[in-house]
Amino acid sequence: MKRHNPGTESRTAQVLLIGLALAFLAFFLMLPLIAVFSEALKQGLGLFLSAVSNPDALSAIRLTLIIAAISVPLNMVFGVAASWAITKFSFPGKNLLLTLIDLPFSVSPVVSGLIFVLLFGAQGLLGPWLSAQGVKIIFAVPGIILATVFITFPFVARELIPLMMEQGKDDEEAALSLGANGWQTFWHVTLPNIRWGLLYGVLLCNARAMGEFGAVSVVSGHIRGETNTMPLHVEILYNEYDFVGAFAVASLLAALALVTLVLKTVLEWRFDLHSGARH
Amino acid sequence: MPSMTTRKASWRAPSVLPGFGLTFGFTLAWLSLIVLIPLSMLFIKSAGMGWQSFVDVGFSDRALTAYRLSFGTALAAAFVNAVFGLLVAWVLVRYAFPGKRVISALVDLPFALPTAVAGIALTALYAPSGWVGQYLDPLGIKVAFTPIGITVALIFIGLPFVVRSVEPVLADLGKDVEEAAATLGANRAQTFARVIFPAILPALFTGFALAFARGVGEYGSVIFISGNMPGRTEIAPLLIVTQLEQYNYDGATAIAMVMMLVSFAVLFTLNAVQSIRRRRLGA
Amino acid sequence: MIRVENITKRFGNYPALHGIDLEIQPGEFIALLGPSGSGKTTLLRIIAGLEFQDEGHVHFNGDDVSDIPVGKRNVGFVFQQYALFRHMTVADNIAFGLTVRKASRRPAKAEIKARAQELLRVVQLEGLGDRYPGQLSGGQRQRVALARALAIEPSLLLLDEPFGALDAKVRKDLRRWLRDLHKQMGLTSIFVTHDQEEALELADRVVVMDHGRIDQIGTPEQVYMEPATAFVSHFVGETNRLPDGRHIRPHDFEIAAHGRDRVLVDNVFRKGGSWRVEGRLEEDGTIIEIDVDAHEAPPAIGDTVTIAARRERTFSNPGD
């Protein structure tokens, strides 16, 4: 080992460190993932299939898809608009605005649900007025959507802002100087430049929207067949000691997570989107 | 601002690009509707309670016990993650080994896996009859339904924060800096302690703080493995839910307020430390 | 004395160096000159101990150091991008090499501090010891890197493209200053550069490298005036390569009636102390550059002139 490269460790030390890291990851990350699928299939494929095709499970899946289909596009539009305003213009208070956009990341999911209960709940600020109008938000689908939009609020914007900051505004200025109008510039110049970053943000936003538990749990009321999303359904089945059912639905969510990870890796790899600390 | 030219006075720097009014207005409106107004409810509600009753419910014995548990387990998990997260980041950045890309993707699993799924999976592993628990139980080590179990769940949740914070800094740290230390006679341990570690310490601290803040507020992955025994394994977010279920909105609000202020304090300190450092290094 | 003997190095299938032999006398200032990929940096790193040769030996004062790790070779190495420790002050950077020594060989704290101050003075950065590298200009960082390398009192100073990252004006000032410092301190130094002007100005001897081999070792005068290969001829200084294989420098041409080559003049402009005439050989359109003394009248654009070579070289291997 006399001649080993001064910029790195000896091969033995490397193997040791790699082994230690892999053992840690296997134990803390891999094992729980395996447990989900193994528990789901423990009693055979038949029970698994009947658990996921049960009407309550199907309605939870439907609701989860609806929630994601509404909240993800909303945050996508917001993310693009916010990134445009923040990266293409300079104005005072920009850092404050960035901090405010990030705010939902630092709020506990439970608190995220609580604030909507305080606003729209039966005893909340607007509760009495809303119930007089016959509008139900808390313990109903609108509340779940609001909580989900809150939780996933920063995802797209956080992805786009650094990307658009780096790209600058030369391309847009060139397009305008060539006679394009604002919308043409956005559709033909900006959007193609940011599409992969946008997709990346949408992917992460979607994973969180479908998987959110704490915030949704507080505002949903857990009404079977009505306000139960997939993660909430997992909890109900688990608390009823229907473990196969709970793990069966959980395995669908785990599969979604794996698909998300694969797509994310492909995007990072193909389009060189650097990955920083993400939530 | 007095206008010095014929150009219309504006509070923002002039730009030829269109759409500022539309996008900025929409951003502010949406931000206010979804985030600011709902969050301000916490302050309005707290203010309406009066100081005494806020302290009574926000700092009751049960609440204090829950804070201690939440902050204690989050701190312990963040420490474990700082050590192993650094190790994982190091191995991913520095060494070549088969399956590296898969391992790197796996690190993000806790971001992608719904917390409730993680919660029941960890419980299945660490319950006394579980895959791991059955070997620990005879040794007298109880993980599920104890603070250790909570810590295990928070280690799972927090790991990627540390890895993803440290990774880019470690990758950016030029090889030449380490070679420079070597030419000056430093051995590998000295190079790590005096050159590499100080350079990545801020990133490590960021990752630690993010993992800690996330751990304090974490709910889904914890409630299954914690057992939720009041006074013993009842975390602060769970206490909020319990208060809500009993229609004690004041109690829930006060506890939420305390937790949020602590989280903000952590993140504020973090930002302050980073900006002082940035100024010092002239970057 | 540094002796490099038959060094060969491959990176995978890519041969970086073949059979390099080189001897360097104490006090010499040596330039390793070549284009990128010529192996010059690899050779420098092997001498330092940052890279290891596949074959051959490196001797310092008669001792084979091939198996001695970099930290024990006592060489000062200045990196292209300086490689300063960003989280340490300038003074701490300079003192680093002394503070990592074993307790038995480490000077007292006060002495280390004094040495750092002394070196700051040498590199003309007095009073900047408490700054961080991020607060310095490129030229200042370069000098900190140099002071840091000098702090360990190296028996050999190695510099990898020391001026590569600097702008033109700073570059020139630093060059002159480094040359003086080398003399003053009685150093033995090797530097890598791809800039022939830099090599000719600074070095006692220039080692011209190409494709992992040494083409020529000689004084700047020898390398310029008597290039050993076609590669050296066109890499060091400007050269016209005529279709018949003759290499002629622009200032070795004269416009004269007895010349045998006819050139159509495309452009004439002033270049420093002379006129630069650009044209094409009538024979086959080869681009020709000619320097005409500034006191003489240059030809006009569009003229056809006859040129003769005052000095020319031909090489058996025509080069690239």
CATH top level label of chain A:
Mainly Alpha
Let me know the CATH homologous superfamily of chain B.
MetI-like
Mean pLDDT of chain B: 90
Subunit arrangement of the protein = heterotrimer
User: Which strand-content bin applies to the residues of chain B?
Assistant: under 5%
Radius of gyration of chain B: 24 Å
CATH topology of chain A: MetI-like fold
Count of alpha/pi helices of chain A: 13
Note the total helix count of chain B: 13
Termini separation of chain A comes to 42 Å
Main traits of this protein?
heterotrimer; A: 279 residues; mainly alpha; MetI-like fold; 13 helices; 75% helix; C: 320 residues; alpha+beta; Rossmann fold; OB fold (Dihydrolipoamide Acetyltransferase, E2P); six-stranded mixed β-sheet; five-stranded antiparallel β-sheet; 8 helices; elongated; P-loop_NTPase (chain C); translocase (chain C); transport (chain C)
Structural features, described:
The complex is a heterotrimer of chains A (279), B (283) and C (320). Chain A is mainly alpha-helical and 279 residues long. Chain A has one domain: Orthogonal Bundle (MetI-like fold). In chain A, 75% of the residues lie in helices and 0% in strands. Chain A is built from 13 helices and no strands. Chain A has helices spanning 11-40, 45-53, 55-88, 94-102, 109-120, 127-132, 141-151, 155-167, 170-177, 182-211, 214-220, 230-239, 243-271. The model of chain A is unreliable at 275-279 (pLDDT under 50). Chain B contains 13 helices and no strands. Chain B is mainly alpha-helical. Chain B has helices at residues 20-49, 51-58, 61-94, 100-106, 109-112, 115-126, 133-136, 147-172, 175-183, 188-217, 220-226, 236-245, 249-281. With 320 residues, chain C is α+β, with helices and mostly antiparallel strands. Chain C folds into two domains: 2-230, P-loop containing nucleotide triphosphate hydrolases (Rossmann fold), CATH 3.40.50.300; 253-320, OB fold (Dihydrolipoamide Acetyltransferase, E2P) (Beta Barrel). In chain C, the strands form four sheets. A six-stranded mixed β-sheet of chain C has the order 6-7-8-3-9-10, sandwiched between helices. In chain C, strands 13-17-14-15-16 form a five-stranded antiparallel β-sheet, with no helix packed on it. The two termini of chain C are 35 Å apart.
